Structures are given as C-alpha cells and as structure tokens.
Amino acid sequence: MQMNYVIAGPPGSGKGTQAELLAAKFKLPHISTGVIFREIQTQDTELGRRVKKLLDEGKLVDNPTVYEVVLQKLNTPELRKGFVFDGFPRNIEQAGFLAKYKELSKCIFIDVSDAECIKRMSSRRVCSDCKANYNVIYIKPKKEGICDKCGGKLVIRDDSTPEAIKVRMQEYYKNTKPMIDYYEKKGVLLRVNGEQPINDVFKEIMNGLK
Ligand code: AMP
Fold first, then answer.
1. What's the CATH code of the domain at 187?
2. What is the pLDDT at residue 36?
C-alpha cells in the first residue's frame, strides 16, 4: 500500500514545514515544487528568467512547465513507497494530471486564515548577501535587520512584497481553493488547523491519518 500524500494550503500556511515532518516520519521523499522553482529561477536561462518573473509577481507557473518538472520526479523509483508532494497539485487540472499516474491517499489541507497568512508572509526577510531566510516574528535575527550568519543586510524577499502577497492570495482563491473543494467532495481531504504551534499541527495530521 503506497503512502501518497499531498500537502496543500494557502501561501504562508506552513505546508513546507509539515511536509518535511511527515516525509521524515514515514521516510518518504518530500517534493516541493516551490523549492524546485526557486532553484530554477536562479538559472541564467530563458526558463530561469521566466520563472523568476512569475514567482516575483506571485503568479503560478504555467501547467506545462509544472508537468515537465513533476514528470521527472514521478518517473523515479524513489516514489515506490509513496511521496509527500508540497505545493503540487495547485489547481484542478494539476490534480487530474497527478491522478493519471498515482492514486492519492490523502490531501492534507493546512487551514490558516487570510490575515494570518498575510502576516506570516509579510514578515519574511532574506539576507541580501548569503540568502539565509528569516522571519521577523518567528525566526528573528539577533540584531534587527542584520543576518546572524554573515552580518549582511536583511531585505524583503522579491516574492513577498505587498503586491506579490496580494496576487498569491488571489491565485490561491482562484486556483487552489476549488481543488481543495474537489478533494473534499472525493472524500480524500484531511483538514487540520494550521494556527497552532508546529508540533500540534503535526499531531493533528498524524491523528487524522490513523
Ligand atoms: P510555494 O513555495 O509552494 O508557495 O511556491 C512558490 C511559488 O512557486 C508559487 O507562488 C508559484 O509561483 C510556484 N509554484 C510552486 N508550485 C506550483 C504549482 N504546482 N503550480 C504552479 N506554480 C507553482
């Protein structure tokens, strides 16, 4: 029996953190399309530049590009036991694409209010030198505005400007929310309260999967 999990939620819901915990618990590969695209955007290629523009604007990457990236993962033997997809699928079409290849065990939906998501995303900072990530509410640097690791200046991430955050929320409601409703109707949705400490969210996930 494969353990095929998808972690979904609005931007800033902490899906990456929960996906990592779940993957470690069951020794499954954690595949985050967000991480893959953040890596691709650093490449000095036509694709890299196109992806960077979309990410900085808060828009979703087009489905054909997403499918190309995901197919490379779906075809690898490391997914034999299962997987934890994080940030994929992100719309109903992508859910249909995944269904052609894998049967989903559960879509875990991390439920967080708009206000909290916006607060979390607005507090993200990145070091302009070493690119270390911070959050001025949750992972505070020792000295305000300065990187603990290298002393560099902390700045707002390109993808976390107020405009980008607004677009990311709009994309979520237009594309991802209908996918959540679709999984709920299919009876494969596990909804958890994402506004609790990290370990409590994870406990709720583990209880829901029993
Ligand atoms: P995330 O870290 O999951 O919030 O993803 C960061 C960004 O990567 C998103 O705002 C999108 O631009 C892009 N992205 C990640 N996954 C997908 C996906 N499945 N479909 C389209 N765009 C995606």
1. 3.40.50.300
2. 96
